[in-house]
């Protein structure tokens, strides 16, 4: 945001004597804006993330207004993390080892497969390693989309107050009833929801201070209310909700295809079949057998888990339920489908120039 001396001069003239030199007007206004940073919990300086310019004094920075992702933790949701300057949203740090485990079972067997099996399989049928490579790329892509996509976070009251028009946008997109749109305008006392609305699945979240629509639940791991919340998956380091459930389903399918392809290729390599030397057996090389077993055993175990998980989610789709609804035994008849993908409401890169109130 470029500092306009004329604009700041006009604002400061109302509070300063007319004899004050005009060159001090922008300095006064900019220094007054520096009081915004302690209110946001950011001290007297603004430290930016991921390579954005930072300054130890507001006068040294052309963009004084922070963005939503930079003040997100001051809103109360300290577990959600942003990367790529707010373009990607992911879960808490406590999921790190689970997420690394998922990457290990995808990359290590696949890497050993291409290192020790692809050349032999290329001589047998060159389509096998090509298809495996395509499926590997698809698996990584869908994993990243699942991990780094907003799952459908319902903005908290404080964020709605900071961004003009956000509350109305959320109410219109989610088709909130008229009697629930302004029932929690103060955000201090829980509203008395009508029995009819409670029966339809509307609930009050005391943490986010908003009325959440049907099939929306608060995730304790991420600290957010998520639309059509299915579950929190530590292996993808994110919640599975209305906006990334399609990516999660595609990830399960591609992972199943990848595991099957790697297992088949490993089995062909262990069989000892050689087109040019039918009598030569791969088992004569003990070192190669060890490496192939390192591929096959983890892949087989991981493949069984993926098959079970995929079958469970196929059951959920046929039953029209979410994982949480099955585990809790509560089912809400109203609500959106898991495959309806509304726009993101968090607007992570939107500028914020309104102080946070209590």
TrEMBL record:
Residues 10-19 have a biased composition (Polar residues). Its EC number is 2.3.1.225. Coiled coil: none annotated. Pfam families: DHHC. Keywords: Acyltransferase, Lipoprotein, Membrane, Palmitate, Transferase, Transmembrane, Transmembrane helix. It is a multi-pass membrane protein. The DHHC domain is required for palmitoyltransferase activity. Belongs to the DHHC palmitoyltransferase family. This is Palmitoyltransferase. The lineage of its organism: Eukaryota, Sar, Alveolata, Dinophyceae, Suessiales.
């Amino acid at each position: 945001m470029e500092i306009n001396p004329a604009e700041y001069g006009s604002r400061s003239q109302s509070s300063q004597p007319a004899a004050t030199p005009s060159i001090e007007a922008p300095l006064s206004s900019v220094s007054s804006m520096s009081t915004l940073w302690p209110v946001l919990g950011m001290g007297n300086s603004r430290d930016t993330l991921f390579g954005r310019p930072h300054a130890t004094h507001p006068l040294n920075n052309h963009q004084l207004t922070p963005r939503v992702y930079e003040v997100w933790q001051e809103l109360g949701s300290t577990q959600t993390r942003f990367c790529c300057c707010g373009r990607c949203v992911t879960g808490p740090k406590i999921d790190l080892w689970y997420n690394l485990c998922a990457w290990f079972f995808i990359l290590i067997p696949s890497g050993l497969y291409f290192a020790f099996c692809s050349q032999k399989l290329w001589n047998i049928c060159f389509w096998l390693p090509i298809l495996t490579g395509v499926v590997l790329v698809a698996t990584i892509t869908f994993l990243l989309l699942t991990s780094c996509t907003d799952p459908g976070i319902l903005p908290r009251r404080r964020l709605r107050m900071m961004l003009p028009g956000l509350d109305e946008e959320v109410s219109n997109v989610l088709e909130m009833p008229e009697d629930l749109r302004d029932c929690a305008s103060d955000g201090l006392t829980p509203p008395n929801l009508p029995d009819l609305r409670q029966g339809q699945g509307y609930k009050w979240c005391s943490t986010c201070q908003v009325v959440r629509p049907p099939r929306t639940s608060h995730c304790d791991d991420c600290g957010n209310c998520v639309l059509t919340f299915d579950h929190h998956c530590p292996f993808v380091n994110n919640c599975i909700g209305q906006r990334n459930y399609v990516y999660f389903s595609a990830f399960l399918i591609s992972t199943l295809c990848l595991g099957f392809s790697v297992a088949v290729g490993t089995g062909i390599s262990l069989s000892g079949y050689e087109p040019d030397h039918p009598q030569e057996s791969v088992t004569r090389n003990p070192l190669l057998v060890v490496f192939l077993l390192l591929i096959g055993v983890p892949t087989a175990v991981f493949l069984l888990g993926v098959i079970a998980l995929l079958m469970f989610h196929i059951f959920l789709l046929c039953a029209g339920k979410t994982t949480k609804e099955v585990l809790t035994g509560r089912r809400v008849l109203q609500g959106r489908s898991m495959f309806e993908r509304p726009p993101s409401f968090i607007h992570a890169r939107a500028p914020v120039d309104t102080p946070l109130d209590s």
